[in-house]
Specification:
Layout (H helix, E strand, L loop, with lengths): L5 H8 L2 H23 L1 H7 L3 H33 L4 H4 L14 H4 L4 H27 L5 H14 L2
Helix pairs in contact: 2-4, 2-7, 4-7
Length: about 160
């Protein structure tokens, strides 16, 4: 029976093609969000109730934060794939997907349709990448204390 190593298991789940596809999607979304919030979103924001305007600003920051976390995670995955970073280092907490705040649905439904679409698209992309990030960590088998002991015994016997 062919045993799949931890690294091969991850490569089967997260392929370079998937990384590139998600990276392209994230960069397109980032460009679209920047264009919207810098231009037409500004005009739409001025027509909103003052409390909704604050919600608009908060949600635009959440969109930006989600996309930044996604892009950083995907760049880490690229580095792992290219061998710049070992697979094990790619799982360290500081290399994992950053925590992004959830949107407030009560606020989102009050936003202009274009803003709602960007909020929902960023939340959807973040959720998909988060599942991949969590799968990477869960895919790692826990070290077996028995195997560690056997390894130490074997090393001790060889060093005698």
């Amino acid at each position: 029976m062919h045993e799949i190593s931890e690294d091969n298991f991850e490569q089967a789940r997260i392929t370079p093609r998937l990384i590139e596809s998600l990276y392209t999607e994230a960069m397109l979304l980032a460009d679209e969000a920047r264009a919207y919030f810098d231009r037409e979103g500004r005009e739409e924001r001025t027509q909103l109730d003052p409390f909704v305007r604050v919600g608009f600003a908060c949600e635009s920051l959440k969109v930006t934060t989600r996309i930044m976390h996604i892009v950083a995670w995907l760049l880490t995955q690229r580095a792992v794939e290219s061998g710049e970073i070992p697979h094990s280092a790619g799982k360290r907490p500081e290399r994992r997907l950053g925590q992004a705040s959830d949107s407030d649905e009560a606020v989102v439904i009050q936003l202009p349709p274009a803003a709602q679409r960007l909020v929902n698209a960023s939340a959807d992309l973040y959720a998909r990448v988060k599942r991949l990030d969590e799968d990477c960590v869960q895919a790692a088998p826990l070290p077996s204390p028995a195997r560690a002991l056997m390894g130490r015994l074997e090393r001790d016997l060889l060093n005698r």
